[in-house]
Amino acid sequence: MVKTRRHGYDGLGTRVIHTPADLTALWQAWPVPSVLAETYVPFVQELALVAVRHPAGTIATYPISRTHQANQVCRWVFAPAPLPDGVIQQIQLHTHTLLTALDYQGLLATEWFYLSNGTVLLNEIAPRTHNSGHYTLDACVTSQFHQHLRAVTAQPLGSTALTSPGVLMVNLLGYETATSDYALPRQQLAQWGRVYWYGKNQSRPGRKLGHINLLNVQPHQVTAWVDRVEALWSGGLSKANLIQ
């Protein structure tokens, strides 16, 4: 796996290298002086944990979520991720250690690879509110945004407890180049959950334009709900249009 050292996000700045020819093509496509090269990790699932640390050292963590990417762009997030207790403890312990070692203040999102042998690897950290934590807006006592403000202003941290047994966040990804505000599909989606629109003035394939939070979703219902949301959102276009 090869990554640019700067400006990489949502599928930009990363490339899987299979052959020397792929590397040659990469240098032609990326006019950068240096890159990062990492061993490719054949993970089973991708997970995320949003945590917050108070200036006094108190740490609170939100429920671990499962995230699903396509073409390296997040399509959906489900919480709480159904995981063995040992995996949950691993992720929480490593996150606590990281926050303490950094003497961190505020919200930090961590993303993890869950491997077939039951271990986890830290893949990415984001020192801010994060897409994987948007579910907290409707499914937790305190949202990630309020929590971050509490931490950076040294106010007592709020509860991170879930208020729904299961929550699904589906990103509303661009599937065309346009300047529409997509008012009609947004209104239609609102029958199922809370829709958040980011007010971006241009759409392009794969761009995050908003998201919807659906409450009381069970793990076995995730795929059906994602398909239903994406079909309404894209007007029946194929999933490939949403994630190219």
UniProtKB/TrEMBL annotation:
E.C. code: 6.3.4.18
GO CC terms, sorted: cytosol
Keyword Zinc-finger: no
This protein's name: Phosphoribosylaminoimidazole carboxylase ATPase subunit
GO biological process: purine nucleotide biosynthetic process
Species assigned in the record: Gloeomargarita lithophora Alchichica-D10
Keyword vocabulary terms for this entry: ATP-binding, Ligase, Nucleotide-binding, Purine biosynthesis
Any one Gene Ontology molecular-function term assigned to this protein's record: ATP binding
Superkingdom classification of source: Bacteria
A Pfam family it matches: PurK_C
PROSITE patterns tied to this protein: ATP_GRASP
Domain ATP-grasp: 80-153
